[in-house]
Design a protein that fits this description.
With about 160 residues, the protein is mainly α. The chain has a domain of about 100 residues. It is about 50% helix and about 0% strand. The longest helix has 23 residues.
């Protein structure tokens, strides 16, 4: 007679994937796959597979901005890190956060042009300092879309006011 292998010790470590609770955005759409919250997630959605790409982190960070106010403006880097902690867990958070930050920096460089290049390490910080909440959120979504090679339409972004 073998013991049932349902104790936590037997299954922990079997997989590094973390299935987090699904997160929906200001349009009540899943930040992972974009379906409306009244619909089930796409089977390939990160909240179904447990594999979170950086674009998901960027969108998940937008909803955390309100909890990351800086002395002036918003702490975008802090929101990204919290999103990473929530989604990929502590062990992988800083790597995932760095990757999302790199994507956002690339997007801001494209948008702000050559004059931004000398201060590229400060761009995410400056976005938080000088932009309002809706603009930061839109930048996060636009950077995610650019990274995924899809079009971002500001007209359908919806209301993201403070
Ligand atoms: Zn989803």
């Amino acid at each position: 007679m073998s013991e049932p292998t349902t104790d936590p010790a037997a299954t922990s470590g079997a997989s590094r994937r973390i299935i987090s609770a699904r997160e929906c955005d200001h349009n009540h759409e899943c930040v992972g796959c974009g379906v409306h919250f009244s619909e089930p997630c796409h089977p390939a959605c990160p909240f179904a597979t447990g594999v979170y790409r950086p674009a998901v982190l960027l969108r998940a960070a937008a909803r955390l901005l309100r909890e990351h106010r800086g002395g002036v403006g918003y702490d975008v880097g802090g929101a990204l890190f919290t999103a990473a902690l929530d989604l990929v867990g502590e062990a992988d958070a800083s790597g995932a956060c760095d990757e999302a930050r790199r994507i956002l920096t690339g997007y801001l460089l494209d948008r702000w042009g050559a004059k931004a290049a000398p201060i590229r390490t400060e761009l995410v910080y400056r976005l938080g300092l000088f932009s309002d909440l809706a603009e930061i959120a839109m930048s996060l979504y636009a950077a995610a879309a650019q990274h995924d090679g899809i079009d971002f339409d500001p007209d359908t972004f919806g209301d993201f006011s403070a």
